Amino acid sequence: MRKIAIILLLLAGVCANAQTVVPAKPQKIYKKQDNKGILYFEESSFGALYKTNGWGFFYNKTKIIHATKKKFWEIEFNKTKHEKETKTESVFTQGGPITPKNYYYGKINSLYTISYRKGYTKVLTEKSLRSGVEISLNTSYGVSLGLVKPYELMLIYGDQTTDNITFKTEKYSSLNASTFLDQNSIYSYAGTWQGFFDMKPMPGATARIGLAFDWATFDDNITTMEIGLNVDGYLLNVPLMAVAKNHQVFPAMYVSMRFGNRK
After folding, report:
1. Residues with Cβ < 8 Å from 247, sequence gap 6 or more?
2. CB contact set of 45 (below 8 Å; sequence gap of 6+)
3. Under 8 Å between Cβ of 195 and 228
4. In which domain, by residue range, is 233 found?
């Protein structure tokens, strides 16, 4: 009985010590959900581009076929300029009906284009890490609608040595060619909206090839820079200049930035 009592006293002491020991609370580990490896089906993005002969902006919709191949369509609005366009300062100072604006000497029309393209993306190198860069080859082609808008100037008519002069806003024609191309008769550029309702359509086609670099931080984001070659062609020569050769085909290098998301 004495041995049993001693054993019970020892067990009671162990239990008492065990009750005073508080088990360590496991530390919480917070980790941002990782989307790496998630299968995406489509992309939506918008962007802007600068060409060696103009600028534009666009919307892109892409369907992901598999990991290395995609197909897309995009619609774009851009402005194309002639390589001989040079901004000229008016020879007149303040004192007329408006402050003179600089103008492009010899320019007779502006060209704006709405294009629809479809194409394919070939992924050349996938991102190996979250901070990596994906490189792709994009090729596309489509149709264009060129809008040729008259470039209007404010011209001076009459004897400039007297007050017997008249200011007229006019577009280029065979009747006013001598005045339109006389810098001493050009007072100012008339403004961007002048000639808007006199635009004429010019059908055409477009094609593009470029390398795209996507370095977005997360897989569901798109942050892409693309560089490449763009070619726009029209049914007829586009009359942009009166003092230089006009063209039917407009090749140009371009760089674009595109932002969007995948889902």
Report:
1. 82, 237, 238
2. 59, 60, 62, 222, 224, 258, 259, 260, 261
3. no
4. 37-262
Laid out side by side, the sheet with 186-189 consists of 165-170, 153-158, 186-189
The pTM (predicted TM-score) of the whole model is 0.81
CATH number of the domain where residue 213 is located: 2.40.160.20
Residue 3 counted as domain residue? no
How far are the Cα atoms of 6, 106, 108, 129 from residue 39, in angstroms, in the given order?
Answer: 68, 55, 52, 16
Question: For residue range 201-255, what is the model confidence (pLDDT) as tens digits?
Answer: 999 999 999 999 998 766 788 999 999 999 999 999 999 999 999 999 999 999 9
User: What's the domain count of the chain?
Assistant: 1
Contacts of 168 (CB under 8 A, 6+ apart): 154, 155, 157
